[in-house]
């Protein structure tokens, strides 16, 4: 059991016990507890099912990298750096993150009145070298994560078919989707509350 | 079990933002209601959610769904203190409008209208987009939600100052952050695992 896992949002947003933001989070105890439980269900589950621990850390690192959030990237990538076997994966991830940068949200609406709002942007594909190093399954997950992070309105059954073709099960795709979407949530809470905490400290100084 | 996608045939698919009660249909097979175990029912949190294909798909990972559902409920329904429900729903609608989730925006714009009694302003947000002028307090909430929704997020001190100038205290600003952030979770699931279907006439 890892009941001692620190509260990840507090940790990464720099929220100190007794601070004004700590008191604010205390008024939303269920949000704080369940956001942490969501984290643990994704990264410390009793059963990793169809998505391995290393795959989960790698995908979350990639998502944090696309958000250009170095501390959260470091947080998710560090378990991979501990194992000899994954050290190379970390280098590949860094290279892929560099190649996958974009600014979102963009993408196309279903044809109609909203088509005037269609916004073009890159469709990312893992490099050949990256695909070789990561394998087809993880490479497909990174391509899907890029879609979900930057241009979610381009999502399609075809994108899910690409995952299945690369070895993803339906259960695995649900976990993958939750993982990318949760990290997108977590990063925004950390970024938002981190700034609010800094602004509260300035006001108190 | 073979894993396969579903490509639904939809006539008159929703192609604009609306407050109407549209539906949603999955691109992957949900669990069958009859196959739900105790662990699945715990993951669904509310037994009535077993009727929803969306939740029966997500319940394939029951522990994540349970924690996600409880996070959602507290962010939006725990309104004893902090930001009024209407403005949490406004943050959800603004994030959904910005990401382009027609289904999420339909549900949460209805809630925003219901709780605020400002259905015309909510409709203006749907019709004109996130730059619509809704009065300074709502404009500040929409701008903050949209900045948090950008990737990478562009939310900054100026957004906090604007919310503060509009009368929001720290707890209320934290509620805006949570409402918008949560819809960056929900939009990604709704948009990528299925699509909207027309309102039942």
UniProtKB/TrEMBL annotation, chain A:
InterPro entries: AhpD-like, CHP04029_CMD-like. This is CMD domain protein. NCBIfam families: CMD_Avi_7170. Gene3D superfamilies: AhpD-like (1.20.1290.10).
From TrEMBL, chain B:
InterPro entries: AhpD-like (IPR029032), AhpD_Avi7169 (IPR023923), AhpD_core (IPR004675), CMD-like (IPR003779), Uncharacterised_peroxidase-rel (IPR010195). Pfam families: CMD (PF02627). It comes from the Bacteria. Gene3D superfamilies: AhpD-like. GO terms for molecular function: peroxiredoxin activity. Residues 62-144 form the Carboxymuconolactone decarboxylase-like domain. This is Alkylhydroperoxidase domain protein. It comes from Ensifer canadensis. The lineage of its organism: Bacteria, Pseudomonadati, Pseudomonadota, Alphaproteobacteria, Hyphomicrobiales.
């Amino acid at each position: 059991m890892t009941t001692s896992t620190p509260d990840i949002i507090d940790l990464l947003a720099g929220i100190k016990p007794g601070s004004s933001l700590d008191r604010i989070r205390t008024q939303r105890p269920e949000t704080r507890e369940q956001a942490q439980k969501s984290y643990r269900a994704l990264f410390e589950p009793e059963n990793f099912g169809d998505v391995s621990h290393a795959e989960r850390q790698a995908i979350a690192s990639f998502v944090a990298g696309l958000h250009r959030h170095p501390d959260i990237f470091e947080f998710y990538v560090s378990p991979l750096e501990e194992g000899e076997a994954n050290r190379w994966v970390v280098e590949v991830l860094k290279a892929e993150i560099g190649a996958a940068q974009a600014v979102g949200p963009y993408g196309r609406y279903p044809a109609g009145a909203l088509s005037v709002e269609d916004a073009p942007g890159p469709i990312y594909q893992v490099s050949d070298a990256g695909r070789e190093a990561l394998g087809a399954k993880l490479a497909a997950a990174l391509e899907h994560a890029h879609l979900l992070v930057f241009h979610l309105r381009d999502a399609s059954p075809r994108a899910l078919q690409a995952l299945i073709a690369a070895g993803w099960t339906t259960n695995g795709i649900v976990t993958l989707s939750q993982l990318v979407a949760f990290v997108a949530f977590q990063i925004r809470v950390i970024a938002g509350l981190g700034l609010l905490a800094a602004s509260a400290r300035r006001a108190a100084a | 079990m073979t894993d396969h996608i579903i490509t639904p045939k939809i006539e008159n698919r929703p192609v604009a933002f609306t407050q109407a009660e549209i539906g949603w249909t999955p691109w992957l097979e949900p669990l069958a209601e009859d196959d739900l175990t105790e662990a699945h029912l715990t993951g669904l949190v509310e037994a009535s959610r077993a009727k929803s294909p969306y939740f029966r798909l997500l319940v394939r990972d029951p522990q994540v769904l349970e924690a996600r559902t409880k996070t959602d409920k507290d962010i939006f329904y725990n309104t004893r203190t902090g930001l009024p429900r209407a403005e949490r729903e406004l943050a959800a609608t603004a994030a959904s409008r910005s990401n382009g989730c027609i289904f999420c925006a339909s549900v949460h714009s209805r809630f925003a209208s219901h709780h605020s009694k400002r259905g015309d302003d909510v409709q203006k947000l749907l019709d004109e987009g996130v730059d619509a002028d809704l009065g300074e307090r709502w404009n500040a909430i929409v701008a903050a939600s949209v900045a948090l929704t950008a990737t990478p997020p562009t939310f900054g001190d100026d957004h906090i100052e604007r919310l503060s100038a509009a009368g929001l205290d720290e707890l209320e600003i934290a509620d805006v952050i949570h409402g918008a952030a949560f819809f960056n979770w929900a939009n990604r699931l709704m948009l990528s695992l299925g699509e909207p279907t027309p309102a039942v006439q």
